[in-house]
Write a structure and sequence with these properties.
Number of strands: 14
CATH architecture: 3-Layer(bba) Sandwich
Bound molecules: manganese (II) ion
Distance between the termini: 28 Å
CATH topology: Glucose Oxidase, domain 1
Number of domains: 1
CATH class: Alpha Beta
Strand content: 25-35%
Order of helices and strands: HEEEEEHEHEHEEEHEHEEE
């Protein structure tokens, strides 16, 4: 197939080959030490990753190595499907997410300075509107990625979960920001660097866990435990989200990549 003037892909491929467009990995490494959400009693918690060896170039498989995994759907960098939350129970499972929804523009709202000063910082509608005043309205089909700087803690489970006497202290949207993103903008998903798409204190909000409540309830998706958002511009990056096509899955570990100019 030869390139035609109307075919943009050769230019994209050329830009990738020349380095004019880079691929940034937004995925945290997944291992047995990946931090995992901890719910209080009486709720059931998810296991992280464990591996059982099948063979390692040995009698059980002389020329091959392979393992069996046990892992929760919501471990490490992962996608929340609408059916993860009761408000989205009639929505899509992971396998039903249309592929076109998994590739789209990334919008990065950076409040890392505020989160460094206040680890329980809550993203507000005012923050979102201030971002839009600088960069234009959040485009339809966008993945809104909240940069908190929390990825710097990703290798230290205690610092990452940041449990205090009254529960976890981690940043996330407040109730009105969650409702605004789900109801007043045509976003596809909301992504964070923390262990969940809601703030650590969000269990005590009304409604509880408002990002889960509103965003998943509106048939949109969540992305957690992202890395390297500092390498993305506020607008102009293209994100590719690749969860398992797990039938009936409420979520899935995902590889998340961004294409960035320059
Ligand atoms: Mn999840």
């Amino acid at each position: 197939m030869s390139a035609t003037p109307s075919d943009p892909l050769p230019a994209v491929l050329q830009a990738l080959a020349s380095g004019a467009v880079r691929v940034v990995d937004l995925t945290q490494p997944l291992s047995e030490s990946t931090p995992v959400l901890r719910l209080p009693e009486p709720f059931v918690n998810t296991p992280g990753l464990t591996r059982r060896r099948l063979s390692r170039y040995d009698d059980a498989g002389p020329a091959w190595a392979w393992d069996v995994l046990e892992i929760g759907e919501h471990v490490g960098t992962h996608l929340d499907a609408p059916i993860h939350w009761i408000t989205g129970r009639d929505g899509a499972d992971v396998a039903s997410v249309p592929p076109g929804r998994l590739v789209g523009p990334a919008v990065v709202i950076d409040r890392s300075a505020e989160c460094a000063a206040d680890p329980g910082y809550l993203l507000t509608v005012g923050d979102i509107e201030a971002w839009e005043a600088d960069h234009g309205r959040i485009p339809d089909g966008a993945w809104v990625l909240f940069r908190s700087g929390w990825d710097a803690r990703a290798d230290d489970e205690e610092a990452f979960l940041n449990a205090g006497p009254d529960g976890p202290v981690t940043p996330g949207p407040d109730v009105e920001a969650a409702r605004f993103l789900a109801s007043e903008r045509g976003i596809v998903g909301f992504g964070v660097e923390t262990v969940g798409i809601d703030a650590g204190a969000a269990g005590g909000f009304d409604p509880g866990f408002p990002v889960h409540h509103y965003v998943l309830g509106a048939g949109r998706y969540g992305l957690t435990q992202l890395a390297n958002l500092a390498e993305l511009p506020p607008t102009g990056a293209l994100v590719v989200v690749a969860p398992l096509r797990l039938v009936g899955g409420t979520g899935s570990p995902a590889r998340v990549l961004a294409l960035v100019a320059g």
